[in-house]
């Protein structure tokens, strides 16, 4: 699959889908709270119109001798109370609706991410841009709740005040409405432009984040200090921010000009209307109450219009951004599954048949017709120079990608026909680039098989086999010690005191043993993959680990990748990957006798050791 470039235009259909998805999400996350919020928002919108009419009634009755004023005055008091209290209650409801919807949206987003069974999407920068915008949209879902509230109050306020204005001056009503249409159209266009800009600048933000992460994290701290590259990275980081700001500045400038012109036009209409009301009242055509009503209506219409415009355009901007959320949610799985059968227990073996692979159409071929059989119960070793494609082959075996051409057969069934999750259930692996989780030691092992997480003897057994048990048992809290100095873990009492300073950092080799323990805890899997499991170990530890692995591999199907050829010599079968194909394969002795690449590399390494006096 080629890397997809995003289309920068978002269609009306996508916006409609985003609106439907957002509405459904808001409703699902709390129908009662959402209804309460909308009811209160409606009340908040109606009260000002009511207040204007009550004020007119009070003023007109005051101007008429003998007219009773108590009832409208009491109504005004009640309206004042409602004006003060309703927004507070509405805001409380809005916070609750917004937070729970945002939680729900984030959960759904990450669940959707989990349905991407392979790695391809994660290596697509366009997808990463979308993902970031989607996460941001999920977090900012409360703003859509605001938008919905403002829309309701805007429509009601506008209808109420326009109705009032219509009674006083139909002509002015038409003029006011006439100014509203260009405002709305201009704001729509601005929102679209801003949304396209946000999409465009996401690449700058992700790079800024990358540099920021380097500068603030512990991983790169040592190199940054030693090489003195902190200033250089900071300059780059700020450069990315400036590029994003420059793109936004262009939209800001356009917005300032357009909005300034439109606001001046609105103010002109309002000023003319006021002039008309005052002169008409002077001539006896309007009462004092009418003038007060007129002023309230003009202000109300303007306020409702600007609120409505902000709600509609703000909502439109959020919806445009929310299309990225929907796109991630509905993205096709990156590994098309044909039959989705559960992977059966391995009885015969795995066969790679004329496997070709490249990471994308833009990348060179890495594998060019690999034919290899890993028979059931065999320990197979794969060797080759740096970049030969050994790890790539492992990724294909775990079905992180599908071969570009050719097939990988699991007991005769194409991996494409097996569900990726069930296939991986049957595999255990230590990856060359294994993870060091900022979690406790027990969790670092238990993540290999969640059923072992609460089973301490199983965790200890795996740690013993990986030769790391003694180190873990000696930690301040034993297996419950957090292996991090970055996070405070396990202290949920909110106390950041000295207790929380318990994290421990392991050495590179110790982390590697822990990764091995994590794979060993997945006991009884059909295939064990060991991609450079001992590269960071001292010679003694390496020897010891290989001894243990050897015992563990006995009678199991395994694939070992190692540059230490002494570690692969007792494999049942050694395969040499070169130029994208299996160049040689056979038992160690046979390959030595054949005197090919393997024999040359083996002798080179052996000579290196023997050269030591
Ligand atoms: N995700 C990726 N996208 C594009 N190219 C990649 C990716 N991963 C690896 N490659 C390229 O594929 C080639 C094979 O890499 P691979 O990691 O499989 O080699 P290897 O044999 O395991 O090497 P080593 O012995 O150094 O670990 C390399 O040229 C590498 O640049």
In which range does the helix fraction lie? 55-70%
CATH superfamily of the largest domain: ABC transporter type 1, transmembrane domain
Radius of gyration: 35 Å
Tally of domains: 3
Ligand names: adenosine-5'-triphosphate
Q: Between the first and last Cα atoms, what is the distance in angstroms?
A: 54 Å
| SSE succession | HHHHHHHHHEEEHEEHEHHHHEHEHEEHH
Counting helices, strands and paired strands, the structural category is: alpha/beta
The biggest beta sheet reads: 6 strands, mixed
Strand percent estimate = 5-15%
Number of E strands: 10
Pfam families: ABC_tran
Transmembrane segments: 34-55, 67-90, 144-165, 171-190
Keywords: ATP-binding, Membrane, Nucleotide-binding, Transmembrane, Transmembrane helix
Membrane topology: Multi-pass membrane protein
Write the topology of this structure.
Layout: H1 12-28, H2 31-63, H3 70-114, H4 125-139, H5 141-168, H6 170-216, H7 221-227, H8 230-282, H9 288-330, E1 349-357, E2 367-375, E3 379-383, H10 390-397, E4 405-410, E5 413-414, H11 420-425, E6 427-430, H12 441-446, H13 456-465, H14 469-473, H15 508-520, E7 527-531, H16 539-553, E8 557-561, H17 565-568, E9 573-578, E10 581-586, H18 588-594, H19 597-610
Helix pairs in contact: 1-3, 1-9, 2-3, 2-5, 2-9, 3-4, 3-5, 3-9, 4-6, 4-9, 5-6, 5-9, 6-8, 6-9, 8-9, 13-15, 18-19
Bound molecules: adenosine-5'-triphosphate.
Adenosine-5'-triphosphate binds at residues 123, 359, 363, 366, 384, 386-392, 432.
């Amino acid at each position: 699959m080629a890397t997809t470039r995003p289309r920068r235009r978002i269609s009306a259909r996508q916006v409609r889908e985003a609106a439907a998805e957002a509405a459904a999400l808001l409703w699902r996350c709390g129908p009662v709270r959402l209804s309460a919020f909308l009811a209160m928002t409606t009340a908040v919108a109606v009260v000002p119109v009511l207040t204007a009419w009550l004020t007119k009634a009070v003023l007109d009755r005051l101007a008429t001798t003998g007219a009773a004023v108590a009832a409208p005055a009491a109504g005004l008091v009640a309206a004042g109370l409602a004006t003060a209290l309703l927004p507070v209650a509405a805001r409380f409801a809005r916070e609750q609706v917004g937070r729970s919807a945002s939680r729900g949206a984030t959960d759904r987003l990450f669940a959707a991410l989990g349905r991407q069974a392979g790695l391809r999407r994660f290596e697509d920068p366009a997808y990463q841009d979308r993902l970031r915008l989607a996460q941001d949209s999920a977090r900012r879902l409360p703003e859509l709740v605001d938008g919905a509230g403002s829309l309701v109050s805007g429509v009601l306020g506008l209808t109420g005040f326009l109705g009032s204005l219509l009674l006083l001056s139909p002509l002015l009503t038409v003029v006011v409405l006439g100014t509203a249409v260009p405002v709305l159209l201009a704001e729509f266009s601005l929102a679209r432009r801003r949304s396209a800009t946000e999409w465009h600048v996401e690449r700058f933000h992700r790079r800024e984040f990358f540099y920021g992460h380097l500068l603030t994290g512990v991983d790169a701290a040592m190199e940054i200090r030693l090489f003195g590259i902190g200033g250089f990275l900071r300059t780059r980081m700020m450069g990315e921010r400036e590029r994003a700001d420059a793109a936004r500045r262009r939209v800001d400038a356009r917005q300032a000009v357009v909005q300034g012109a439109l606001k001046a036009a609105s103010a002109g209409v309002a000023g003319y209307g006021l002039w008309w009301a005052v002169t008409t009242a002077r001539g006896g055509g309007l009462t004092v109450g009418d003038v007060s009503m007129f002023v309230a209506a003009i202000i109300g219409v303007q306020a409702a219009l600007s609120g409505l415009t902000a709600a509609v355009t703000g909502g439109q901007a959020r919806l445009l951004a929310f299309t990225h959320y929907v796109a991630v949610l509905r993205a096709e799985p990156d590994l098309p599954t044909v039959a989705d059968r559960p992977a059966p227990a391995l009885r015969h073996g795995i066969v790679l048949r004329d496997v070709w692979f490249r990471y994308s159409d833009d990348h060179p071929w890495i594998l060019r017709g690999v034919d290899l059989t890993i028979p059931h119960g065999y320990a197979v070793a794969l060797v080759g120079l740096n970049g030969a494609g050994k790890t790539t082959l492992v990724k294909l075996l775990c079905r992180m990608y599908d071969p570009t051409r050719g097939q990988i057969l699991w007991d005769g069934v194409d991996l494409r026909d097996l569900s990726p999750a069930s296939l991986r259930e049957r595999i255990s692996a230590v990856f060359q680039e294994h993870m060091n989780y900022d979690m406790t030691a027990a969790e670092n092992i238990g993540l290999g098989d969640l059923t072992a997480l609460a089973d301490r003897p199983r965790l200890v057994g795996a740690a013993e086999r990986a030769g790391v048990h003694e180190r873990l048992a000696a930690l301040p809290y034993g297996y419950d010690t957090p292996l991090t100095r970055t996070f405070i873990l396990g202290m949920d009492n909110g106390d950041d005191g000295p207790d929380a300073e318990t994290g421990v950092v392991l050495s590179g080799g110790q982390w590697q043993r822990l990764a091995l323990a994590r794979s060993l805890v997945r006991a009884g899997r059909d295939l064990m993959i060991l991609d450079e499991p001992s590269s960071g170990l001292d010679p003694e530890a390496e020897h010891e680990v290989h001894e243990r692995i050897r015992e563990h591999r006995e009678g199991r199907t395994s694939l070992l990748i190692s540059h230490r050829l002494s570690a692969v010599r007792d494999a049942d079968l050694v395969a040499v990957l070169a130029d994208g194909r299996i160049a040689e394969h056979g038992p160690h002795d046979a390959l030595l006798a054949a005197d090919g690449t393997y024999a040359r590399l083996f002798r080179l390494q052996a000579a290196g050791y023997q050269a030591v006096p």
